[in-house]
Amino acid sequence: MRILKLTKETEENILEDLLKRSPNSYGKFEDSVNEIIANVRKNRDAAIFDYTARFDGARIDASNILVTEDEIKEAYDAVDPKLLEVIRKALVNIRSYHEKQIQNSWFTSENNGIILGQKVTALERVGVYVPGGKAVYPSSVLMNILPAKVAGVDEIIMTTPPGKDGKVNPSTLVAAKEAGADKIYKVGGAQAIAALAFGTESIPKVDKIVGPGNIYVALAKKAVFGYVSIDSIAGPSEILVLADDSANPRFVAADLLSQAEHDEMASAILITTSQTLAEQVSDEVDKFVAQLSRKEIIQKSLDNYGYILVADDMNQAINTVNAIASEHMEIVTRNPFEVMTKVRNAGAIFIGEYSSEPLGDYFAGPNHVLPTNGTAKFFSALSVDDFIKKSSIISYSKDALQAVYKDIAQFAECEQLTAHANSIKVRFED
After folding, report:
1. pLDDT at residue 23, as a whole number
2. What pLDDT band is residue 298 in, cutting at 50, 70 and 90?
3. How far does the chain reach from its first CA to its final CA, in angstroms?
4. For residue 332, which of 39, 45, 100, 181 sits 20 to 30 Å off, Cα-Cα?
5. Quick one: pLDDT at residue 190?
6. Rounded to an integer, what distance in angstroms lies between the CA atom of residue 64 and that of residue 186?
7. Does residue 18 or residue 395 have the better pLDDT?
8. φ and ψ at 372, to 5 degrees?
9. pTM (2 d.p.)
């Protein structure tokens, strides 16, 4: 990996480089995505059946687009029992973590007849998109469905592309069933997002769409936002490790590569105060890359977006950490909890040398659907909050309103909204 001295110029160049990976830079694909969305809105099922044949090579129609209970049973028979056991263990951790996020309605009342409050209501129907093709991510199935389930969503609809045989990967189906998906449809890509956003004869319209996907899925989610809600426009995966000379270089190298293997556009960055550690990690990275199965992808990722930055001190390092606002961030220092208090911007923070990033991907409980491309400065991990809405509650008695109605009328008249003022004053006419 390239080793650079951390300076203001270095930081600015890296930030500019990383922003090239943003889904906002995918404009050349927008026309194709918009054409797919328009076709699905107009032709509904016919369009998604045609796209599934063209893009996935599968014959799907109204009779087999919905995954049946028999197909789910077949998936359970095909899945390794040890994997099922791990899925169920992870489910317990993920559910337990998200149950702590549950919000309740609240009300306050005063003696003068004023009642104020907030009513918390779960979304009625949510769509979960799960990628297919060569990649299989049962962990993402759990992470997207469980917070919706914990929030109390009435109906969870999942879509995922089928293989050429018209079937869904067994581990994906089993994870969906275990997590609590109500219906699973065999459709992927931008056409699936359009179907969820607008509805077809087979697939019902949802209120919100969540889940990762390729460039076409990301742009489709962006295009339908406003017709439905979405979680985020996810970019390529990224990891940032903040370390001092106490860190184990082999551990750090392994953790950097855990994200580099995702994608040629994935980012892996080490910021350290130790030149010696920087050189040791670079050497360990080379050794690992030579033996890992996805070494071609990893090497391209490192060549494009891999950096080791050597800072003058920890304060400079932390400032750059906050500027980058990485999706995953590991702190491997002598005093990691103290350092953590100074980190403002990160999707998920992993503290200590035994809190490797894959722990969060699969098992610990916090959600692994995280903000990317610097959006951790203003976005959070997927949570129960994403599957609820809040309504304000206001109730005034006559006496309570009479005490303040002239103030409200004056405010309205100041804004030249006389009908607003009249709506208040009419209640106290002689």
Report:
1. 64
2. very high
3. 82
4. 100
5. 96
6. 8
7. 395
8. -120, 175
9. 0.91
pLDDT (mean) for 2-25: 85
Whether 241 shows a pLDDT value over 80: the answer reads yes
Q: How far is CA 14 from CA 6, 64, 138, 335, in A?
A: 10, 48, 33, 27
For residues 357 and 14, give the distance between their C-alpha atoms in angstroms, rounded to a whole number. Answer: 22
Secondary structure class of 399 (helix, strand, coil): helix
Task: Report d(CA 114, CA 127) in Å as an integer.
Answer: 39
pLDDT, tens digit, for every residue of 73-93? 999 999 999 999 999 999 999
- Read off the pLDDT band of 125 (50, 70, 90): very high
pLDDT of residue 17: 84
The answer to whether residues 174 and 168 touch, using CB atoms and an 8 Å cutoff, is: no
- Using alpha carbons, select from 220, 215, 216 the residue that is nearest to residue 235: 215
**289 - beta bridge partners?**
none
**For residue 330, what is the enclosing H or E element?**
strand 328-332
- Give the sign of the dihedral formed by CA 220, CA 222, CA 227, CA 229: positive
358 alpha-carbon distance from chain centroid: 16
- Tell me how far apart the alpha carbons of residues 189 and 52 are, in angstroms, rounded to a whole number: 9
Which DSSP symbol is given to 127? E
Q: What is the pLDDT of residue 235?
A: 81
DSSP per-residue letters across 144-191: HHHHHHHHT-SEEEEEE---TTS---HHHHHHHHHHT-SEEEE--HHH
Q: How far, in Å, CA of 349 to CA of 326, rounded?
A: 9
Task: Write down the mean pLDDT value for the chain.
Answer: 94
Tokens 């919000």 found at: 103
HSE-up of residue 393 (Cα within 13 Å, Cβ side): 14
- What is the tally of helices (H) and strands (E) in the chain? 18, 14
How many Å apart are CA 179 and CA 83, to the nearest integer?
A: 14
**C-alpha angle 270-273-274 in degrees, rounded to nearest 5:** 90
Q: Say whether pLDDT at 26 is over 70.
A: no
Active site residues: 327-328
Q: Which two tokens stand for residue 331?
A: 């702190």
Alpha-carbon span 222 to 224, nearest angstrom: 6
Residue 41: exposure state from Cβ atoms within 10 A (0-12, 13-18, ≥19): middle
Question: Which run of H or E residues covers position 49?
Answer: helix 45-51
> Is the pLDDT reported for residue 21 higher than 80?
no
